[in-house]
Design brief:
By secondary structure, the protein is α/β, with parallel strands linked by helices. It folds into two domains: 324 residues, ABC transporter type 1, transmembrane domain (ABC transporter transmembrane region fold), CATH 1.20.1560.10; 193 residues, P-loop containing nucleotide triphosphate hydrolases (Rossmann fold, 3-Layer(aba) Sandwich). Helices cover 65% and strands 8% of the residues. The chain contains 16 helices and eight strands. The strands form two sheets. The protein has a six-stranded mixed β-sheet with strand order 4-5-6-3-7-8, sandwiched between helices. β7 and β8 form a beta hairpin. α3 runs antiparallel to α4, α4 runs antiparallel to α10 and α6 runs parallel beside α10. The protein is elongated, with a radius of gyration of 33 Å. This is ABC transporter ATP-binding protein. Its main location: membrane. InterPro entries: AAA+_ATPase, ABC1_TM_dom, ABC1_TM_sf, ABC_transporter-like_ATP-bd, ABC_transporter-like_CS, P-loop_NTPase, Type_1_exporter. It holds the Pfam family ABC_membrane. It is found in: Cell membrane.
């Protein structure tokens, strides 16, 4: 692994640990439950060995105190393990919800400007794969790291007074397990990253071909597309097997060394009981049996850490996707009054868009011109605060894009978006965009759930979004092709409504359709990644 990749992996690991700091107390309690469960298990083994010594060697019935202590230890072990599992699930759920809320806040802040930077399958991966991977890493792997240190040390401390030779064998052999785990596991995060990318691309490719199924049928391209999907699937399978084979190799190595070490302990205990080996103290049956039970416990925690090691790699790969999104500055509407702006050396980050001087006074109407893809939408999104830029605009503002978002809620909720409006205001806004007759035909009127039924055309969705904008009292209105999906006649009527309702406000209007020149007192043009003030 290169130094650059190691440095990046170290930074992402620190970022993951920092995000788990809010749950530090709960994670510490989870560790204590784990240690208590191990202590109860060791206590259970001790009383079990003591009872075996009494029954087999001494040929006496087991003492009631030992049986009672054995039962108490078993009950404690079960209860601590149950508490550990229950608390682990709660913390894992809490961490997942924490990341989900942060991602939700970023989506609310960035809106479509953020969503369109990635395909739909990428966002599905964030919710379904990456966030759970991070939660599992913080709850399982990080806790198991501590258990893999505490449990072997505790076992060696208990075994050393019984027979120092056995304790020395375990002390020497245990570091070999994490060493090989690191050697084999190094670089697995890169494999996980490649696997995630391949899975994302295949999912996006499949979704795209489903959407274009009619076009593929018209051009008789079924076979070529099937071949493409088959090749992509083979590539995904190959990368999946690379990750799986590495996991199997790691598990095999761990099992080999742990089995070898336990076998050495078993051979030593057996020959010591037979009197063939005199290294260390002579063992009794209960001591030998106790050693045979404790030795696998040492390696059990290390083997479990090895099985969880792939979760670290998956979490590092997930952090590489989550970190750039969750660390974006959040845009929030502030209560400051909008009085225009005067921006010097304005520049957006990605994609790059510059302007040496950009000013806007209260009440200005600006016509934003430029070819498709020149950066008009980028400029409006930067002014809205949805994209990182060198300057921000204070005050409440509204952006109406050409991609209307209709949520699966009621018509009323889609219009209000958390604000309180009267039914009269809602019906007036629908009437102004020529949707009143359509809304009156709905079964539940304003309380009708929006979804696949009733079906809405692109023009109806755009007019509904415009009706939503007409209800706002924001002093700055940003319009990005608001009539793109309307007919020419509808465009003229809706444009006049916009002019009538927003005439006293500040407005920036990007449109390819014809608009009266006397509506605007300023004209901006976006060309060659630069915003130019024409007049």
């Amino acid at each position: 692994m290169s130094e650059r990749n190691k440095s990046q992996e170290h930074q992402l690991s620190n970022w993951l640990n920092a995000n788990g700091a809010a749950h530090r107390a709960a994670l510490l309690l989870l560790t204590l439950f784990g240690v208590a469960a191990v202590v109860s298990q060791i206590t259970l083994y001790w009383f079990l060995c003591s009872i075996a010594q009494t029954l087999i060697v001494e040929a006496n019935p087991a003492q009631q105190s030992d049986v009672f202590s054995l039962g108490c230890a078993a009950f404690s072990w079960v209860m601590f393990e149950w508490s550990r599992q229950a608390l682990s699930q709660r913390i894992e759920l809490s961490i997942s919800q924490q990341f989900q809320h942060r991602l939700h806040a970023q989506l609310l802040s960035g809106q479509y400007a953020l969503v369109r930077q990635h395909n739909h399958f990428f966002w599905q991966q964030l919710w379904l794969e990456h966030i759970p991977a991070v939660a599992q890493y913080l709850v399982r792997y990080r806790i198991q790291q501590r258990m893999a240190v505490v449990t072997p040390l505790l076992a060696i401390i208990l075994l050393f007074p019984v027979n120092w030779a056995v304790a020395a064998v375990l002390l020497v052999s245990m570091p070999v397990v994490p060493l090989f785990m690191y050697l084999i596991g190094s670089g697995t995060s890169a494999l996980h990253q490649k696997h995630f990318v391949a899975l994302e691309r295949l999912g996006s490719l499949f979704a795209d071909r489903l959407q274009a199924s009619q076009l593929i049928h018209i051009h008789d391209g079924h076979q070529s597309q099937l071949n493409m999907l088959a090749n992509s699937s083979k590539m995904l399978n190959r990368r999946t097997m690379e990750v799986v084979s590495l996991g199997f190799l790691s598990t095999t190595v761990l099992d080999f060394f742990s089995t070898l070490a336990v076998a050495l302990v078993a051979v030593f205990v057996g020959f010591n009981l037979l009197g063939e080996i005199r290294i260390g103290a002579t063992l009794s049956l209960d001591q030998g049996l106790f050693m045979l039970l404790i030795a696998p416990l040492c390696f059990a925690e290390l083997k479990l850490l090895g099985r969880y090691y792939h979760q670290r790699s998956a979490a590092i790969a997930a952090a590489g996707e989550l970190h750039p999104i969750l660390n974006r500055p959040l845009h929030k509407d502030v209560d400051e009054k909008f009085n225009g702006f005067d921006l010097q050396d304005f520049e957006s980050v990605v994609p790059r868009l510059i302007c040496h001087h950009l000013s806007l006074n209260k009440g200005d109407w600006v016509q934003l011109q430029g070819d498709s893809g020149s950066g008009k939408s980028v400029l409006l999104e930067c002014l809205m605060g949805q994209r990182p830029a060198s300057h921000s605009v204070c005050g409440k503002k509204v952006l109406l894009t050409q991609h209307a978002l209709i949520t699966p809620a009621t018509l009323r909720e889609n219009l209000c978006l958390g604000h309180a409006y009267t039914d009269i205001q809602l019906w007036q806004s629908l009437e102004q965009v020529e949707l009143k007759n359509w809304a009156e035909t709905l079964a539940d009127g304003l309380d009708t759930i929006m979804g696949e039924r009733p079906p809405m055309s692109g023009g109806q969705k755009q007019r509904l979004a415009l009706a939503r904008a007409l209800l706002t009292d924001a002093p700055l209105i940003l319009l990005d092709e608001p009539t793109a999906h309307l007919t020419e006649a509808q465009h003229q009527r809706v444009s006049r409504i916009i002019r009538q309702r927003f005439q006293s406000r500040t407005l920036i209007w990007a449109s390819h359709k014809t608009l009266p020149a006397d509506w605007f007192n300023k004209h901006w043009q976006v060309k060659d990644s630069e915003v130019k003030v024409l007049c």
